Amino acid sequence: KLEGNIPENVTDLTIGNRLRKLFTFPDIKNKLISLAVYNSRFAKFPDNLSNSLLKLDLNKNNFTSIPGTNLPINLKELYMNYNQITSIPNKLPINLKELYLNFNKITSVPEDMPKSLAILCLTNNKITSIPDKLPDRLRILRLDNNQITSILSNLPNNLEELYLDNNQITSIPY
């Protein structure tokens, strides 16, 4: 049971496996920089997150969506692996650099991803195609274990790592 207030000077908070019977997100109002609440069966996205938050780890919960309007505007890293997410919102924080949505039920990637995005990990989803336009700053793209059938010839020039194994790709452009 999470009781009382968390001291204001706490910048990193990790809570895991301890909130299995708590189905509402704790009200945390201090100036956290990093928050991890994992393996806790949350399904309702928290609406009380501080804009000071730079890293949010909500792995292994029961979220079905990511409400882009509820994400902190300064968020740089978002981890929501092992949830039930079916889509990525069109509006994500403009400063987001890393997005991890592995092991969900996502079927497509929106065209309008944040320009700041450097790492996009979407392994083990149900994605069938790569969007025509990906952020120019993208360095790592993980789309392994999806249902992709073709690769675009206009991938970002800064791309350093591309993972496409275990898809249904029939040809590679060159």
Please give a structural write-up.
The structure is a single chain. An eight-stranded parallel β-sheet has the order 1-2-3-4-5-6-7-8, with no helix packed on it. The chain starts with 11 loop residues before the first strand and ends in an 11-residue tail after the last strand. The protein is an all-beta fold. It contains no helices and eight strands. It is globular and about 55 Å long.
Task: Summarize this entry quickly.
This protein has no helices and eight strands. It has 174 residues and is an all-beta fold.
Largest sheet properties:
8 strands, parallel
Give the low-confidence spans. Answer: none
Mean pLDDT comes to 88
Give the count of helical stretches: 0
The shape, in one word, is: globular
SSE pattern, N- to C-terminal: EEEEEEEE
Q: What percent of residues are in strands?
A: 15-25%
**Total beta strand runs:** 8
Q: Structural class, judged by helices and strands?
A: mainly beta
Strand order of the largest sheet: 1-2-3-4-5-6-7-8
Q: Helical content, roughly?
A: under 10%
End-to-end distance, in Å? 56 Å
Radius of gyration, Cα only, in angstroms?
17 Å
Name the features.
8 strands; globular
Summarize the SSE layout with pairings.
Layout: E1 12-16, E2 34-38, E3 55-57, E4 77-79, E5 98-100, E6 119-121, E7 140-142, E8 161-163
Parallel strand pairs: 1-2, 2-3, 3-4, 4-5, 5-6, 6-7, 7-8
